[in-house]
Amino acid sequence: MFNEMYRGDDIRPEYRLIQDWLNANGPDALNEKRAEAEALFRRVGITFAVYGEGGDPERLIPFDMVPRIFSATEWDRIEAGSIQRAKALNAFLTDIYTERAIVKAGIVPADLIDGNDAYEPVMEGFAPPGGIFSHICGVDLVQVGEGESYVLEDNCRTPSGISYVLENREVMSRMFPELFRSGIVRPVDHYGDMLAEAMASVAPPMCEGEPTLALLTPGHFNSAYYEHTFLADLMGVELVEGPDLFVEDNRVFMRTTQGAQRIDVLYRRLDDAFLDPRCFRPDSMLGVPGIMEAYKNGGVTIVNAPGAGVADDKAIYIYVPEMVKFYLGEEPILPNVPTWRCGKPDEYKYVMENLADLVVKEVHGSGGYGMLIGPKATKAEIEEYAKRIEADPAGFIAQPTLALSTAPTLGADGLVARHVDLRPFVISGRETKLIPGGLTRVALKEGSLVVNSSQGGGVKDTWVLNK
Amino acid sequence: MLSRTANGLFWMSRYVERASNIARLLDAGRRMDNIPNSDEGRASEWESILIASGSHEIYDGDIKNADMESVARHLIFNEDNPSSILCCMKSARENARAMRIAVTREVWDVLNSNWAEMRGKSGRDITGGRLAEFLDWVKNCGFLFQGAVEASMLRDEGRDFITLGMAVERSDATARLIDVKYHVLLPDAQDVGGGLDHMQWVQLLRATNSLRAFRWIYRETVTPQSVVHFLILNKKSPRSIIAAMCDIVEHLESIGGGTPDQRAVCAQAREMLTTLDALSVEQIIGNGLHEWLTRQIADTNVLAGAIAHAYGFNGPELIETQSQSQ
């Protein structure tokens, strides 16, 4: 198993500054800092829940004080691979709502698209400005060895967690100024400018002059509300709710104390289903009646585009490496985890015979629920799960159990090794880019592979070092 | 700025101000309660405090026999009383949370910390001689908020709505506080102008933290006339009704009137200020202090309604109805 702090018995150079700090100050100092950091998080009211996990909307995620560190070389690969993936996914989304060349080429079966819950027929034939569906795309990665990573899943819909990336850094730089002073850690605080710039670059055809941006939130009862306020604040744009907005002559306006003001690009943190009661769920009080028509007529740009969730499906995930080849003519930089589709007879047979060694997931599942982790399951659990697969083979995929990397994490008596993953956030507008870093989630329970916050996961600051 | 945001800022500020003013009311009651009352005359200060707070109708008990502890509990911890200090702090924080982007981190920090601390308080913190200290703490929470607003917020429209909310609430609260004196019964009609009457006026000044300021300005013994002048007509007195009215006019003008309704509300406020400015203490007291205060409270309420209407607080789609029980 790959412990990211070590190469063989030696501490990797990237982690030497952490070890030096610990040698100089001792683990107790780190524990004290942890209490201080938690008080800080609580005071500014940073609360967070990863998309779709529910739970107390005002809970704090445990924060681990030991940063996760990437060398410049490691990061170059992750960066290039994530950008490549986001480009391919955007090309795919544009394609499936228009030409469907990838279906015609016999690569992706049509039923995986038409049968997908996230597919929005209303988007058919429509090309969003710049050909971008997923302006903010989270690519979830795991590592198994030095420079050896796999993509676990893609989040093209509405990936959350970026506020934690930036707030973690803010807290770390307050706690450990001496570690940042050397300038060895690459900064992440230009995320707001990067996002605002990307949003402005996809202004709708009707927009003249400087586009007005806004962020649409379901409101302060939403679990990710803190992140919505954080992002609006970061970009210096209005944080609006559905009832603040109305549509007139294919333009979207917000109600202000000085009358109606036009919005050109709307970053919505609201699910497709609630976006427009005239188009999706008629009972939605959170959306804006008529916004889809305005969107399709070029009066406003919606970020991320409705229907982008098709690409998040685990059955579609399997085809992403082929998308990279098909649309970009490139070899995939970041590989998928090898995946067996239980819907295919020969692969089904292999999965059923090897359940004890595999991880099995529901095709439409998320949040780490409804999974079978073969090596950790009892015989009875495996038999139970086998029955579920038997009943609906196409609803499941299986993957080998990866020896996930661990990162040093603060335990009661010093550093312990805990499993981690990484979500970089790729921004697509006129250009496709990302900040050096991302959300590192850590499974705080010993041996656990589940990093989701609802199941004992925490977060870490992610450092990318300068060359 | 979004109309919803303006509404949220206005109410956030009103709730903070209301919490402090409920503390001042309680402080006035506590001080009057402490005045040695040698006569057998019925002590009625707690009844009058309840009436002045505007929440006597939901007081759970016999209002005639209300005492310090029960009134304090009602006005501090009662979750069913939207004007209790607990509810005010909660509502202020909720409004700030809903308008998180429109307030600075410093302002949010104050409201969030105050609320967290308030949640940890219990009956133990207001009994056994600890009430005065608790009330000081509540007032300090208000001062911290004002300091954070003053020192960290942009001086733009958002700030104007915050000051507007504060001024509307303060004008209302000062009128109610003076009215306490009307409801407190003196043992005998002949006691008007006597020692007890005098002591009560003094305690009223103390509760508004303004006895020293009063002496500095008037350099004379406390009389009902001078207190009325100080708390209603003196522009130098920070909690006077006319000072609040000046703030209202100034900030309405600063926001500016783009629509006929907005210009009308500005004119309405200006007219209220002009009327106040021309008034004398004799005119106020001559026609009945209580009657004047009642009318002033009603007029301020009408003005607040007109502001809400002019700036679209209640929008075509009302998102949230704020408690207006006072």
From TrEMBL, chain B:
Pfam families: Alpha-E. It comes from the Bacteria. Residues 1-311 form the DUF403 domain. Coiled coil: none annotated. InterPro entries: ATP-dep_Glu-Cys_Ligase-2, DUF403. This is Alpha-E domain-containing protein.
